[in-house]
Amino acid sequence: MLEIDNAKLAADDFRVKWEAEATLCQSVERDCQALRRAKSDHDQIIATLRGDLDSLKEELYYLKKNHDE
């Protein structure tokens, strides 16, 4: 009888731990998805800024060239 009670308590304890871990796992997965979206957004912004920088460098080159002439 005591062994059965101990087994039930152990099973309940493992169930509670599993539920807590499952909840934590879902939270971490949501955080990872949010971070992936943020990284994608930042990558797009970086690409845009690099393009803008290249355009500005080209414009500066032509302005200097025209000024020297």
Describe this structure in words.
The structure is a single chain. With 69 residues, the chain is mostly helical. The protein has one domain (1-68). The chain has one helix at 2-68. The longest helix is centred in the middle third of the chain and has 67 residues, at 2-68. Keywords: Coiled coil, Intermediate filament. This is Keratin, type 1, gene c5. InterPro entries: IF_rod_dom (IPR039008), Keratin_I (IPR002957).
SSE arrangement:
Elements: H1 2-68
**Strand residue percentage:** under 5%
Outline the low-pLDDT stretches.
none
What's the assembly state of these chains? single chain
Q: How many domains make up the coordinates?
A: 1
Q: Indicate the percent of residues in helices.
A: over 70%
SS-based class: mainly alpha
Count of DSSP H/I helices: 1
- Report the average pLDDT across residues: 95
Measured distance between first and last alpha carbons: 101 Å
Order of helices and strands: H
Radius of gyration: 30 Å
**Shape label:** rod-shaped
Main pleated sheet = none
Instruction: Report the count of strand segments.
Output: 0
Keywords: Coiled coil, Intermediate filament
Protein name: Keratin, type 1, gene c5
GO cellular component, one term: intermediate filament
Domain IF rod: 1-69
